[in-house]
Structure formats: C-alpha cells, structure tokens
From TrEMBL:
<feature type="transmembrane region" description="Helical">
    <location>
        <begin position="56"/>
        <end position="76"/>
    </location>
</feature>
<dbReference type="Pfam" id="PF01478">
    <property type="entry name" value="Peptidase_A24"/>
</dbReference>
<dbReference type="InterPro" id="IPR000045">
    <property type="entry name" value="Prepilin_IV_endopep_pep"/>
</dbReference>
<keyword id="KW-0812">Transmembrane</keyword>
<protein>
    <submittedName>
        <fullName>Peptidase</fullName>
    </submittedName>
</protein>
<feature type="transmembrane region" description="Helical">
    <location>
        <begin position="26"/>
        <end position="44"/>
    </location>
</feature>
<keyword id="KW-1003">Cell membrane</keyword>
<dbReference type="GO" id="GO:0004190">
    <property type="term" value="F:aspartic-type endopeptidase activity"/>
</dbReference>
<keyword id="KW-0472">Membrane</keyword>
<dbReference type="InterPro" id="IPR052218">
    <property type="entry name" value="Preflagellin_Peptidase"/>
</dbReference>
<keyword id="KW-1133">Transmembrane helix</keyword>
<feature type="transmembrane region" description="Helical">
    <location>
        <begin position="140"/>
        <end position="162"/>
    </location>
</feature>
<dbReference type="GO" id="GO:0005886">
    <property type="term" value="C:plasma membrane"/>
</dbReference>
<feature type="domain" description="Prepilin type IV endopeptidase peptidase">
    <location>
        <begin position="7"/>
        <end position="111"/>
    </location>
</feature>
<feature type="transmembrane region" description="Helical">
    <location>
        <begin position="88"/>
        <end position="119"/>
    </location>
</feature>
Amino acid sequence: MPTVALFIFPFFMAFAASSDLLTMRISNKLVLLLVASFFVLAFILQMPLAEMGMHLACAAVVLLVGFTFFAFGWIGGGDAKLAAATTLWLGFGLALPFLIYAALLGGALTLLVLALRRYPLPSFLARLSWLDRLHDPKSGVPYGIALAIAGLLTYSSSYIFLGLTA
C-alpha cells in the first residue's frame, strides 16, 4: 500500500499538467480526486486533526487568493483550484517554496510560450489542435504545468510523503 500511495500525488500532478497542456483545462473531478486522496491518506497515516486543519486552512487561503487572481483574469479557475488542492497536500510549511517554484516556473513557461508564438507554426505541427491552440496569441498559458512541477519539487518534504516512507 505505501509504495502505491506514494505515486498518487505525482500521478495527479502529471495528469493535471498534461490535461492543461492538451486542453487548456484542469478538470474539477481531478481536483476533487486530489483533495479526497489527501484526506484518505491523512486518515490512514493518522495525521493529527490540528495538522489536518492547518493544511485545510492553507488550501483555503490559496484558494481565496487564487480566485482573486482569477477574478482579475491573471490565472484560470482550474489553476486556482489546482494550486489550492496542491497546498492541501503540502501545508503552510511547504506552501511558500511551492509558490516560489510555481512563480519562477510559470514565468519561464510564459516567456517560452510567448517567444514561440512570435514564429509561425510549421503546417505539419499546426494540424495538432492542442499545439495550434497553444500557439494562438489569444489563448492563455497552461500554468498547470508549472503548478504540477512545483508540487512535485516540494512533495518529497510533505507530511504524506514522509509518513508513507517512514
């Protein structure tokens, strides 16, 4: 069980990143599965209620800030929900490193996408709808990729990961 459980978070992060890249969407079902799996593993690992409450408070703060950013049009709604679900797994202790990684990776991703949009897409690549959409200057940037990588970079220090490897 612990070995399989170690890969739940990375699996959902990889799925979120690939989904955002290919469709520019992060499914609510995916976010709910990420949240539910946190609570299942926290229960199995007997995470103290106070600790669980702090993880939940961290996710609530990130969700509030994320939806504020969404209201201003700075990020997508799926990105806001994914960031909150990710910080649920990480808690306050890892939220700052996660958010710094996400900001740096997201900035680099944005610069890369903007640079690539300056050049015409070869016709054989334009046939791929996801790549054509990514190349369109009117579309956004799949920030879920940066969030997923940032989550993976901090996951190995999380309560769940450490509890499963103890």
